[in-house]
Task: inverse folding
């Protein structure tokens, strides 16, 4: 309330003038005041905005909310925020400190001593606030953490004292000699800070995993899993910490207990996030995670949401962008069951999101092993995917079309694929995909549209070795569209990969139907070496006539 704020504010001002523990918030030295052409009190008030806001926050947080016992106060404070909120607050504060340390190093290089000092005071306040906030909501931190907290606070105080001395002298030689000490102190602070954050995050991951493993309550387990998922969204480093602490093992235990069936979707979503790192993949292999995922996908009693999240884990662990999937030997043993379940999920998907997850898993599997394409052909997957594309409520984004055309491109290496494409009106779909454009201008969506154009051209090039497919493509006016994509950079969003794919498709169709090209197109886009045609098109200026 207002009286509380006023009391804290009064204490802050009194402490500043008495010199109690907050010497860094005093006004600039008196001997330098004659250089400032503004009222001294006004200048001091402006400096306070930068130098003491965090300090005020520390004081407010350390004051009791009521006159009850300490235990009651702790209960009130801890109940205000969930563990997830507290961790987010901690991570936000850590990000601010990290950014400030980087900026201090930049200002130090330019000898901006006044800015270095004010930013150092700010970092000092943020560090104290972060430690105070963390100790408010945790009660079982380790002795090692307390040691690093003390080391970090002491170093920050030493750093502030250094920079304060720097702004009190103007002798270049002294400043030069102090600069190396300041740089060394800054490096040490960064190291202590990094080690403390590592310990804190490891400690919190351990606590959450302990809750998940030991609790029989669905509510407590759900809360812990949601907090763990929130941590995984902060980057690969946190995923590594969770994986090293046994996160994958603990989460798969949940997926093997019927009493937690209602938690399977969020558990699997968290697993998918952790498995973006190598440590998570190794753990998945050790606990027979592939077999568990196959059981979930093939069990018809599970909800569609559970099947979709299991598909997301499959999509993650088979991603062609990962370099550490070779050890997934158990995947090959269960691949046919998994592919069959994923095709069924695509066919029965009730929403675009479910279809996207299932088709993404299938697309990645076709990169993972060529046998997958033969299984898909036997399952009539081509027909199912082409039919889904005609439903705009299911295949409703460029991302979904990207997955479908990836599967078609990888399957098109099989000779039997051509007849399936003809029967399912697939050439018409590929032609439509050559016109794929982003409606929002979002960079991720634009990139997805480029991939759709490129892969549809690649699929046409591969399938056009079959005369029937080539004839259908010519009748649908694929050649003029390919020429347009080659000659007009804006049509392909200046993408070189789309250009190469279109040149390859055009050359294949030109062999099958040479009458479809004008002489100038033939001379520039077909007759030269591919690299020469590519250079010609990339240097070509658009005509606006």
Result:
């Amino acid at each position: 309330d207002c009286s509380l704020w006023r009391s804290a504010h009064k204490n802050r001002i009194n402490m500043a003038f008495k010199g109690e523990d907050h010497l860094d918030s005093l006004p600039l030295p008196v001997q330098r005041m004659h250089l400032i052409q503004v009222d001294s009190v006004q200048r001091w008030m402006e400096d306070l905005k930068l130098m003491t806001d965090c300090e005020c926050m520390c004081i407010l947080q350390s004051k009791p909310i009521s006159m009850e016992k300490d235990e009651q106060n702790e209960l009130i404070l801890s109940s205000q925020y969930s563990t997830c909120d507290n961790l987010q607050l901690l991570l936000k504060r850590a990000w601010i400190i990290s950014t400030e340390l980087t900026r201090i190093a930049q200002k130090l290089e330019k000898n901006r001593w006044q800015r270095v000092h004010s930013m150092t005071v700010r970092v000092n306040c943020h560090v104290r606030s972060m430690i105070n906030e963390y100790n408010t909501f945790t009660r079982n931190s380790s002795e090692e953490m307390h040691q690093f907290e003390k080391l970090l606070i002491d170093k920050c105080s030493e750093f502030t004292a250094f920079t304060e001395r720097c702004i009190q002298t103007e002798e270049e030689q002294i400043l030069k000699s102090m600069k190396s000490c300041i740089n060394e102190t800054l490096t040490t602070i960064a190291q202590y800070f990094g080690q403390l954050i590592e310990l804190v995050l490891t400690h919190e991951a351990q606590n959450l995993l302990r809750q998940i493993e030991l609790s029989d309550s669905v509510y407590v387990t759900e809360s812990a899993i949601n907090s763990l998922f929130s941590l995984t969204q902060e980057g690969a480093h946190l995923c590594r910490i969770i994986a090293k602490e046994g996160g994958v093992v603990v989460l798969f235990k949940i997926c093997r207990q019927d009493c937690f069936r209602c938690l399977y979707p969020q558990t699997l979503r968290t697993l998918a996030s952790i498995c973006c790192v190598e440590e998570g993949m190794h753990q998945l292999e050790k606990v027979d995670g592939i077999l568990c995922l196959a059981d979930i996908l093939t069990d018809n009693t599970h909800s569609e949401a559970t099947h979709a999240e299991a598909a997301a884990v499959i999509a993650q662990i088979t991603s062609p962008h990962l370099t550490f999937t070779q050890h997934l030997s158990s995947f090959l043993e269960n691949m046919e069951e998994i592919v069959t379940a994923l095709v069924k999920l695509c066919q029965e998907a009730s929403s675009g999101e479910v279809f996207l997850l299932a088709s993404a898993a299938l697309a990645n599997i076709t990169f993972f092993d060529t046998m997958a394409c033969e299984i898909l052909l036997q399952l009539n997957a081509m027909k199912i995917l082409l039919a889904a594309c005609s439903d705009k409520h299911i295949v409703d984004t460029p991302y979904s079309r990207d997955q479908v055309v990836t599967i078609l491109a990888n399957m098109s290496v099989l000779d039997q694929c051509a007849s399936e494409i003809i029967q399912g009106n697939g050439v018409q779909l590929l032609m439509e995909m050559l016109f794929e454009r982003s409606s929002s201008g979002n960079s991720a969506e634009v990139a997805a549209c480029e991939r759709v154009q490129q892969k549809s051209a690649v699929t046409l090039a591969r399938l056009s070795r079959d005369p029937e497919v080539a004839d259908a493509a010519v009748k649908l006016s694929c050649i003029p569209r390919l020429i347009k994509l080659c000659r007009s950079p804006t049509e392909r969003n200046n993408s070189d990969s789309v250009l190469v794919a279109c040149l390859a498709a055009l050359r294949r169709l030109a062999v099958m139907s040479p009458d479809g090209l004008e002489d100038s197109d033939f001379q520039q886009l077909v007759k030269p070496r591919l690299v020469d045609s590519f250079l010609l098109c990339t240097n070509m200026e658009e005509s606006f006539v």
